[in-house]
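Hi there. Long-time user, first ticket. I'm pasting a complex I've been working with (about 477 residues overall). I'd like to know whether the download I got is complete or cut off, because the file seemed smaller than I expected. Thanks.
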Amino acid sequence: MAAILEARGLWKSFGDFDALKGVDFTLNTGELVFVIGPSGSGKSTMLRCFNRLEEPTEGSVMFDGVNLMDRSVDINLMRRRLGMVFQQFNLYPHLTARDNVTLALRKVLGKARAEANEIAEAMLDRVGLGDKADSHPGELSGGQQQRVAIARALALEPTVMLFDEPTSALDPELVGSVLQVMQQLREAGMTMVVVSHEMRFARAAADRVIFMADGQILEEGTPEKIFESPEHARTREFMQEIGQ
Amino acid sequence: MSTAPEAGTWAHFIETFFRPDLIDQYAGAIGDGVIVTCEIALLVVVCGLALGMALAIVRAYRITALSLIIVGVVDLLRSLPPLVIILLMYFGLPTVGLTLSGFFVLWLVLTLVLAAFAEEIFWAGILSVRKGQWEAARSTGLGFNQCLIYVVVPQAIRMTVAPLTNRTIAITKNTALGTVIGVGEILNEASTAQSFSGSATPLMMGAIAYILLFIPVVIVGRWIETRFQWRRA
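Hi, the file is complete. Here it is re-exported in full:
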């Protein structure tokens, strides 16, 4: 398997606080990697360094053979190939579900409105919200909003999808619909990095699980290895805390 | 003993504020004033809001020098009474060889003052758009400008419609200040008529003209506020 995303020596400081302390991470094409760890361990920061929403203090990020840290790289062009889904959905409240999806299609990819609308409706269909194209985010449940957010990222035909705690802000009964869409993506062969505590989903779908603590990757391996026989004491501790 | 003086008081009241012959006589002049007031008000609202919005957007780029200049000028305009600026420009500038018409001075000063307040209100609106909105937009490849134009500013406008409407109405009523520099707006026409007639009737006519003019504005403002409400996600 070829590496599609490769981070080397990622370091991120916020003032005196080091959120990432030299993280090495490789993601292969077609892989689903789960990132777990206690809050404040740097999971989200790492994810956000991958598309430079967070500017790494040091280190490099290679994406599809391009060094994203290179100043000559058009980061906006690269970002649309790294789809991102946020904990708080971050849908545009003033736009309908359809327009949430079409905005970047029209303004970044330069598609005509009619074509963008067609793509948006196909994507909303794919996440099971074909009938909600005209709804504003405020009229949708959390789970529906998150699925629109997934459609928004998917419409740009990303090479990799980054999920930053996609179900943490959802009521328990709404989590399933979002995981189901992620499972479908998985089956369609999408390359994904998922920061989440949905352990059941991780067991069922992840190729690899990474455990992070204190801004470092402490351990990684198959879900069986990390969940059944973790090597590191911190990993075992964490598993006990979350009741695994 | 009680009814006669009351009838007299009432007649006196009508005589003072609503003399039919004076109403007839000065209706035309006050009508002209209404047109002038409308012209200035419209120009001030359009130009002031546009300029205020433009300044707030410039601030979003966070270029320190530019922001400092904007904040400085805005604070100056917000702290000075508009009347002081109007008098300074109208009576002061001719001594350095720059004579401006009363209409122009009134328009310029009110536009600048409205722009100053509008800039602060828009800026607060831009700041109150959640960081996640920027991040979501940037993560789909939108550049800073596109993010500002298509995602942040539309939300900022919706959030600031209420304070903006109030401020706009307040500034627009200041068109009455044109009376001190000879602009033929409502109050000027009314007080001129009052001087000639010695009656308060024209002033009452002016007041009624303002009410007729601004009540619809207040209603439209309220309509815009409800129209622009949307359930926040």
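A couple of notes from our side: Residues 58 and 108 of chain B are 21 Å apart (CA to CA). Residues 20-60 of chain B form the longest helix (41 residues).
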